[in-house]
Design goal:
Bound molecules: 2-acetamido-2-deoxy-beta-D-glucopyranose
Number of domains: 2
InterPro entries: Glyco_transf_61_cat (IPR049625), Glycosyltransferase_61 (IPR007657)
Structural class: alpha/beta
Distance between the termini: 40 Å
GO molecular function, one term: protein O-acetylglucosaminyltransferase activity
Radius of gyration: 27 Å
Pfam families: Glyco_transf_61
Main location: membrane
Strand content: 15-25%
Oligomer: single chain
Protein name: Glycosyltransferase 61 catalytic domain-containing protein
Length: about 475
């Protein structure tokens, strides 16, 4: 049927509407002229107003040095203001030492972690590593001033052992660091707005500059996309400062120590050093400032993946060509079939990918858009930290039956998302978790999975939609 031509009345109404729009858009006041001195607030960063000596030290002269204060602390993660270092030894200056936690919860010898109680004892710090001294002693030891290490620094007192790995870097070091630091801003918004300043430098006093990258080159990408202007120091720089024989003082520093974190209750419970930091206050959106920087760098709008009204994205990270920790081939095929079935039936987006065949940026982009991520226990699941937590966000991890490890379970939950562990057709979620166990078959190529059970749970998780729409 041909459309009927508009009536005179309709034409008249349309003309009136146009006039009204024209009138209101014209009567809009012009935007105020931009202020003529837009550079004033940021100018001092680049140059001083008046000539002055370069500010390199904290001087107390004949009085006593300022005391160290602790801004935030749990075992292994401590934020200190005015922490001193001299000849490679860390000094907490305090006239009320009873308010300072036992230093073994702050710092260790920074040795490699080996199992056994004897090894645990061996890593505990001595006077040659960290000391708590009075202001009087500090005056005697440091003299009248200390060289300033300005702004906020991150000092990592760990050996390379757990650094050169994407999971340990992003989901432990970076995770714990930011979780501890974010305790100073418990009102970080879901968009990631925060009052925290980025760290100026990250200092490793036990590793050199060729021992912090990982085989997938993710560590450096995460570092430089989280904080594009952060600088790095390594063991030689630590030694340089030590050999100068003068005290340095951190304006503010977060000291991370894996060995010290291992003394926490949360470590005993989850075997994750970052878990210690979760005992601190913090926002539900604590991770978003980092996540947003990284996904935005990868070219994704940080808001992608939020809310529950968009098309759900299911991503299965396959390890079938990895050689270790793989599904029974027929079970893998069946799982893929089932995922395609629910894609066709419900209109989900389904991705079956192998992380090793994607660029770093592609991995982050896909994770950022993913609603349900799944795969066999392994490093590929580290990307879950780039997902956007929403009520449907889910991680499904496949283990050899009876096997379990907290790594990705803990990490998922720490972000406010839901994790399911699968033993073939059986699945479990917190708080009903099994005890961690590396059973025979855990690392093998014969891990069973019931693809139909997985698909059923996907549909269940995604049909939350109707209840919690936003
Ligand atoms: C977050 O910061 C941006 C940029 O300043 C601003 O536009 C937005 O309104 C802020 N959001 C909240 C919730 O404060």
């Amino acid at each position: 049927m041909a459309p009927t031509p508009p009536t005179r009345r309709e034409v008249l109404l349309l003309a009136m509407l146009l006039l009204v729009i024209l009138f209101f858009s014209n009567s809009e006041p012009p935007p105020p002229p931009s202020p003529t001195l837009p550079l004033t607030p940021s100018a001092p960063v680049l140059e001083a107003h008046t000539p002055q000596p370069l500010d390199t030290r904290l001087t107390w002269g004949s009085s006593r040095p300022p005391e160290t204060t602790i801004a935030s602390h749990v075992p292994g993660w401590t934020i200190l203001d005015k922490l001193y270092i001299l000849k490679g030894v860390v000094y907490i200056v305090s006239d009320s030492p009873s308010t300072i936690p036992d230093v073994r919860y702050i710092y260790s010898k920074g040795l490699a972690i080996k199992p056994g109680q004897e090894e645990d004892q061996k890593r505990l710090p001595t006077d040659r590593h960290i000391r708590v001294i009075s202001t009087k002693e500090a005056r005697k030891l440091f003299g009248t001033s200390a060289q300033t290490i300005d702004g906020f620094s991150f000092l990592v007192n760990d050996p390379p052992q757990f650094i050169t790995h994407y999971y340990h870097w992003s989901a432990e070091l970076w995770f714990g660091f930011w979780r501890a630091y974010s305790s100073l801003d418990p009102s970080i918004s879901p968009e990631g707005n925060t009052t925290l300043v980025p760290p100026r430098r990250i200092m490793f006093n036990h590793l050199d500059n060729v021992h912090w990258r990982d085989y997938a080159d993710m560590n450096q990408l995460v570092l430089r996309s989280s904080f594009p202007s952060v600088s790095m120091e390594f063991v030689d720089d630590w030694r340089d400062r030590a050999e100068m024989g003068k005290a340095f003082v951190f304006e503010r520093v977060l000291v991370a120590d894996r060995s010290a974190a291992m003394l926490s209750f949360n470590y005993a419970r989850y075997q994750r050093t970052a878990a210690a930091a979760f005992a601190l206050p913090g926002s539900m959106s604590w991770w978003q400032p980092i996540r947003n920087n990284v996904v935005e760098f990868a070219g994704v709008d940080p808001e992608v993946g939020s809310g529950t009204t968009g098309k759900p994205v299911i991503t299965y990270i396959s390890r079938q060509n990895w050689g270790r920790r793989m599904l029974i081939p027929e079970h893998h095929d069946r799982l893929v079939q089932e995922l395609h079935r629910i894609r066709n039936e419900y209109g989900y987006e389904v991705n079956v990918v192998e992380a090793e065949h994607m660029s770093r940026v592609e991995q982050i982009r896909l994770a950022a858009r993913t609603t349900i991520m799944m795969g066999v226990h392994g490093n590929g699941l580290t990307s879950l930290v780039w997902m956007k937590p929403n009520p449907r966000s889910t991680v499904m991890e496949f283990f050899f039956p009876q096997g379990f490890a907290h790594d990705y379970e803990y990490t998922t939950r720490a972000l406010g998302m839901v994790h399911y562990g699968f033993w073939n057709s059986e699945y479990f979620t917190s708080p009903g978790l099994p005890t961690p166990q590396y059973v025979e078959g855990f690392q093998g190529k014969e891990i069973p999975i019931d693809g139909e059970a997985v698909a059923r749970l996907c549909v269940e998780r995604l049909s939350l939609n109707s209840e919690v729409d936003d």
